[in-house]
Amino acid sequence: MRIIWGYFKERAWFALLLVLCVGLFAQVLRLYDLPAEAVGYASLLCAAAFAVWTAVDLLRCRERVRYLESLRGQAALLLDQLPEARGPREEVYQALLLELGDTLRAVSSASDARRRETLDYYTMWVHQIKTPIAAMRLLLREDPADHVRDLEAELFRVERYVELALSYLRLDGGGTDYLIREYALDAILRQAARKYAPLFIRSRVSLELEETGLQVLTDEKWLQLVVEQVLSNAVKYAPGGHVKVWCEGERLLVRDDGVGIAPEDLPRVFDRGFTGCNGRMDKRATGIGLYLSREICRRLGHTISLDSEPGKGTLVTIDLTRPELEVE
Length: 328
Prior knowledge:
Elements: H1 2-10, H2 12-31, H3 36-70, H4 88-141, H5 148-173, E1 181-184, H6 185-203, E2 206-209, E3 215-218, H7 220-237, E4 242-248, E5 251-256, H8 276-281, H9 289-300, E6 303-309, E7 313-319
Parallel strand pairs: 2-4
Antiparallel strand pairs: 1-3, 4-5, 5-7, 6-7
């Protein structure tokens, strides 16, 4: 009944048009002084033809609607099985549906890929954070007073992993709270150096931090996270070495004299989850730090690049030029 009611409701204008045409036809016949029986007979024939056509069209419409209803719930998979379009309007509708289906599949595929990447990252993150927690547990079983520095170092690693995870979530969700203003670059560098000072001392790495005197248009919190990640990598791969931080124009440079990076790894160091040869030697590597650094720089309008040679250290360059933004 729903289909029949909908059918007549949709074609009500056609029925009214037919009644109008039959009325005009009957009126013309009467003007020619034809008998009323002839006019009535002609009108009855027209009504009968319309009734037959309506019945056939209604049956076809019902079958068509039932077939379309059978596709409900799996339309995204069966768009190619839609019935042949009847008229240009249905052709346009079906073309739109096919485009929507392609868009839906693309979005679904991207969402699945993102979900897999997130699952892989947090699976790896859980395994990574177990290491410092297990180390702290072992140290606590002994005399904690003799391992205060070791416990502080492991706790620092836990905090850093948590910060990376939170930063990853914020960037992945697109809900970052940027506050773009002019900041003193030296203050940002000193905060990052102060935070990582225990790690420098523990790894016996000397830090040379030159005054820059620069005011940079950026977000303080996110730029400091990038600097911290660069310093963390420098300490990790240059134990007992030297790290220098300075500026050339509006470019911030960080150089270490550590193990360097293999040439075949350089093009992929900023890829998500890539650890390279150094990461395979250092089981603690997550392959997420440089990826986050690149994403943060991209969103802030900065650029980050890296040059390195095995055995000769690494140079990280952060271009802080921001001509397109205005101060708040």
